[in-house]
Amino acid sequence: MTEATREPHETRLKRLRMRSMRRGIKEMDLILAAYADARLHQLGHEALDRYDALLEENDQDLYRWVSGQETPPEHFEPMIEDIVQHGTRA
């Protein structure tokens, strides 16, 4: 059992939101904080696991993926697409 699976759901959402806001690049702070505010409470357990893993990635890579400069790894593609779509709707 991982730490995330033992963590209460609301605590996990708060932790993920905080990690979304405290990145190394201001652009990623803004993009991920807005996404977290709008979508985290709607995501299921597996999607939260993917988002948690995504937050472990380097900010430079994340920025290149969401800006379309590089193709994200296949396992992150759906989540990156969701983040980009959310950003274009905001």
Structure description:
The chain is mainly α. It has one domain (about 10-90): Flavinator of succinate dehydrogenase (DNA polymerase, domain 1). Helix content is about 70%, strand content about 0%. The chain has 6 helices and no strands. α2 (about 10-20) runs antiparallel to α3. It is globular and about 35 Å long.
Give a brief rundown of this model.
The protein has 90 residues and is mainly α. Helix content is 69%, strand content 0%. α2 packs antiparallel against α3.
- Shape label: globular
**CATH architecture annotation name:** Orthogonal Bundle
Number of helices: 6
Radius of gyration: 12 Å
User: And the CATH topology?
Assistant: DNA polymerase, domain 1
Structural class, please?
A: mainly alpha
Share in β-strands: under 5%
Count of distinct strands = 0
On the 0 to 100 scale, the average pLDDT is: 92
Outline the biggest β-sheet: none
Per CATH, the superfamily is: Flavinator of succinate dehydrogenase
Family: Belongs to the SdhE FAD assembly factor family.
Protein name: FAD assembly factor SdhE
Organism: Tranquillimonas rosea
Pfam families: Sdh5 (PF03937)
Strand and helix layout:
Blueprint lengths: L2 H4 L2 H13 L4 H14 L5 H10 L4 H8 L10 H13 L1
